[in-house]
Amino acid sequence: MEKHILLLFCHNFRFFRVVILLLLNNTTEDLKMKNLKKNQLMNENHTRILFLIALFSFTFLFSFSQSESEDKTLSPYFYVVSNDPETDDLPLKSTSAEVNIVGVIADVSIKQVYKNEGKSTIEAIYTFPASSKAAVYSMEMKIGSRKIVAQIKEKEKARAEYEEAKNSGQSASLLEQQRPNVFQMNVANIRPGETIEVSMKYTEMLVPEAGTYSFVYPTVVGPRYTAGAAAEDTYLNTPYQKEGETPFSSFDLNVYLAAGMPIDNISCTTHKTNITYPQSDMAEIKLDQSEKNGGNRDFILEYSLGGDKIQSGLLLYEHGDENFFMMMVEPPKKVLNEDIPPREYIFIVDVSGSMTGFPLTVSKKLMRNLVTNLRSTDKFNVMVFAGSSGFLSETSLNATSANIEQAISYIENQKGGGGTNLLPALEKALTFPRGTESLSRSFVIITDGYVDVEKKAFDLIRNNCDNANTFIFGIGSSVNRYIIEGIAHVGMSEPFVVTNSENCDNIAEKFRKYINSPVLTQIKRTITGIDAYDMEPTTIPDVMAERPVIIYGKYRNNADGSITLKGHAGKEKFKKTIKFSEAKPDKRNSAIRYLWARERIKMLDDYNNANYDETTVKEVTGLGLKYNLMTAYTSFVAIDEQKVTVNGNTKTVKQALPMPQGVSNYAIGFEMELDEAEMGFSLYSDIEIITAIDEKIKNKVIEAIEKEFIADINSCFNNDNSLLEKIEITVDEKGNITGVSIIGPFISIPIALCLKDKISKWDFSEYQAGCVWTIQIKF
């Protein structure tokens, strides 16, 4: 058998993902030689930066959103690296936020003030949340009368400068992105009695759901499960105040909303507010004076816009030698049947080997739900792909009962097998004759994400949004969310994920609502009289009843030209022209500049997740430096030239955050006292047998691993900075280990060799299951 090691390079805002498949007959030299030098992904500089801020924890892979991850913490102690944790204290004194929403852009300015009320010079590691779609562009620190403005740097340089300043006795502040919506602030060398004020600014785009826009200002990072967390998730050990305790900091927030279109409704259900309306498209929202403890729950503002027809608007911003524009196309508030053009759905289903079993079973159930809910006026077709692709019909079929039964039968007869090549299926789908000129065509890709997605596949989707909408379903309990999210992004859509058969119907219903009502299709954009460039998206997908379209771009010289959109709305042709001269550049629109850069960075990240490229990394880094944005490769660092360390001793304090409203102490283990020396150190979070075997054998195997074998894994990680997500162990009918898969964003050669050596010695011969079975150990 050929000795080999397979590396899959990816990153997602903060790290590269490395998947290592170890075969038991690999030698040490094989591991050192095969592909490890390629692109130097194991670059020690990249790796060190992630680990300098780490304690003990490992990757929670493919995290999309907080709602999909474990939202609890089992940490039983208040983490304080201090000789005197009873007296060292750095409480947050106040938090204030000024929010300026223009169009669909929120520009947020945050100020945090905290004070060292202890007796020692300390370093504070304070965790605070920001928007899940934040593009941070400014940070500064005030220490007494001194003001220090942060500078954007390459992440390695920022961390190195921060550590050097801290070690030399200078006050320093570092802002690095942890999860997409959680940021961690390090402030070094804070003297007793000293007040520190940290300011941050970020922008975000507000995307409506079911016609409602939501602005969320998260105030508290909710309790999180610690055992299986990523090493970069240092915040998971952040302590919380006890339930019912009054937050020791004040909280204030003001919002100014200029919607650009009439505001139909606006509300804030999380906080008591006062809302005034200077005019029909503007509103001012302030916290009511009676709102005393607003910092223990997220602030959520929701609003909807009026309008009986498709509306559009244009915003401009001029900055030095770059001018920016953003065009919005908003669906009508109410969509009538006559507003919806003819629709066609082409379902592209992954039937490759990795889809065998549960994923393909759920795919069939999902397809049945989707196809049987088509309307008689709709058309559809079904394609399957693995190593090659096949299709139900040469042309799309009417959604009749007979054709639907034929499609279901075609799907039911599919069996998993072969490779996973998506590109030929997409190319074939684009060749199907359209039939009706005003047809709204949508591709629905159903896959577990473990497919060969070349740059050409992303390009094909991105360059044909005006020919076909692209929607994607992730199928299975463990899907490749990087690829699924990337395909959704380049198709200007949202990802849908089905993790089990129980939630299949709910996801299908959500999807139907999302794609149910296209109101403007086959949109073509024409710009005349102005030199516009660097526009995103490259092509424009349909405007849906629940999805507006946002277009970004730059222009040179004066804004004297016009932008025209043409398409099909219902059974009629649509044309709308907006003159640039009618949209005056406004300083309040400065967020467009950062959002343009963020959209560009997100697109580059998606491409790099599928096909790692050092050139793309350099471009993302360059964009971060140019537009003052935090990225996976850039951070803010602020350094005070004055040295303040006393006797060279600095202590680290993780300051308690206010307990989220309605969360019990039991969520994080208050009232529990455990001697750390008595606790068995364990890196794993869960052990599963993912093959159907006898329940008694399954329980005995899990018990044996917990009692006898986990210590082997733990021993491999002493003084090593590898990040592990899970280990999959394949066992044959006689209990012999035949394969080991080690998955994580960074796995060093010593760790790989150690794990291989330890696990290969495990003996399961007394647990003969009569079939090949797989053990999955999650971290």
Describe this structure in words.
The protein has 779 residues and is of the alpha+beta class. The chain is 21% helix and 34% strand. The strands form seven sheets. Strands 8-7-12-5-4-14-17-16 form an eight-stranded mixed beta sheet. A seven-stranded mixed beta sheet has the order 3-35-6-11-10-34-9. Strands 21, 22, 23, 24, 25, 26 and 27 form a seven-stranded mixed beta sheet that branches. α7 (455-462) links the parallel β25 (440-447) and β26 (469-475). α4 packs across α9. The two termini are 30 Å apart.
Short description:
The protein is α+β, with helices and mostly antiparallel strands. It has 13 helices and 39 strands.
Mean of residue pLDDT values = 74
The major sheet is characterized as:
8 strands, mixed
List low-confidence stretches.
1-82, 221-240, 662-682
Structural class: alpha+beta
Spatial separation of the terminal alpha carbons? 30 Å
Order of neighbouring strands in the sheet with most strands: 8-7-12-5-4-14-17-16
Helical stretch tally: 13
CATH class of the domain at 341-516: Alpha Beta
Task: Provide the CATH architecture of the domain at 341-516.
Answer: 3-Layer(aba) Sandwich
Q: Compute the gyration radius: what is it?
A: 27 Å
Q: Would you give the CATH topology of the domain at 341-516? A: Rossmann fold
Query: How many beta-strand runs?
Result: 39
Q: How much β-strand is present in the residues?
A: 25-35%
Q: Shape, please?
A: globular
Q: Helicity level, as a percent range?
A: 10-25%
